[in-house]
């Protein structure tokens, strides 16, 4: 009898195990309940980098001194030179949103080799052809935005550490000189991924 009760108790405990698994819930994006992974770029890393870059760019006032107002910005290559697979647009779009919506910059999305809107670029080419022009580059940018994201990994015993370095540069199209640059480092350390920070 005791053996039967013990067996039933064990069976009940085993059946309740799946019920203990946490259910999916909504959390604040990038908030303190977000998963922190040592070897990958997380959403909070992108938010921190974009915020740091944007604060620096706005504080410097370079965009307000552009020949055109709002300043014309063309986003060129931002290279992801890390082992973490993520879209670098997640970084630049966060900055773009603030710059465009605040009226400080317009982003030329239909120009250049990396045109974001090939349809709009084709339409501009057709319009230029009708006017007898050979180029659609009638809207010259004031600045080009480029960048690179790198990582540096280290470990001591079982503890791993990764530093992601986000670098962006704004180049003045008239002079070819660097008008603004910013580096934001995000360092994470731990033995395994965790929830919260």
Structure commentary:
By secondary structure, the chain is of the alpha/beta class. The protein has a domain at 32-110 and 141-195: Rossmann fold (3-Layer(aba) Sandwich), CATH 3.40.50. It has 4 helices and 7 strands, in the order αβαβαβαββββ. A 5-stranded mixed sheet has the order 3-2-4-5-6, covered by helices on one side. A two-stranded antiparallel sheet has the order 1-7. Helix 3 (89-101) links the parallel strand 2 (71-81) and strand 3. The chain is elongated, with a radius of gyration of 25 Å. The protein starts with a helix and ends with a strand.
Please describe the structure with a list of short key phrases separated by commas or semicolons.
197 residues; alpha/beta; Rossmann fold; five-stranded mixed beta sheet; two-stranded antiparallel ribbon; 4 helices; 30% strand; elongated
């Amino acid at each position: 009898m005791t053996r039967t009760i013990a067996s039933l108790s064990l069976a009940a405990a085993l059946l309740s195990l799946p019920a203990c698994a946490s259910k999916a819930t909504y959390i604040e994006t990038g908030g303190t309940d977000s998963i922190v992974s040592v070897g990958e770029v997380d959403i909070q890393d992108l938010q921190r980098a974009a915020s740091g870059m944007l604060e620096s760019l706005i504080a410097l006032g370079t965009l307000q001194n552009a020949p055109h107002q709002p300043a014309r910005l063309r986003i060129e290559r931002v290279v992801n030179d890390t082992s973490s697979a993520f879209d670098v647009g997640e970084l630049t779009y966060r900055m773009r949103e603030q710059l465009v919506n605040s009226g400080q910059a317009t982003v030329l999305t239909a120009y250049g080799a990396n045109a974001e809107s090939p349809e709009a670029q084709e339409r501009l080419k057709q319009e230029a052809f009708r006017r007898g022009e050979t180029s659609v580059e009638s809207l010259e940018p004031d600045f080009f935005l480029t960048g690179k994201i790198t990582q540096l990994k280290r470990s001591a015993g079982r503890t791993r550490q990764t530093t992601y370095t986000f670098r962006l540069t704004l180049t003045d199209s008239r002079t070819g000189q660097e008008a603004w640059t910013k580096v934001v480092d995000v360092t994470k350390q731990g033995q395994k991924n965790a929830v919260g920070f």
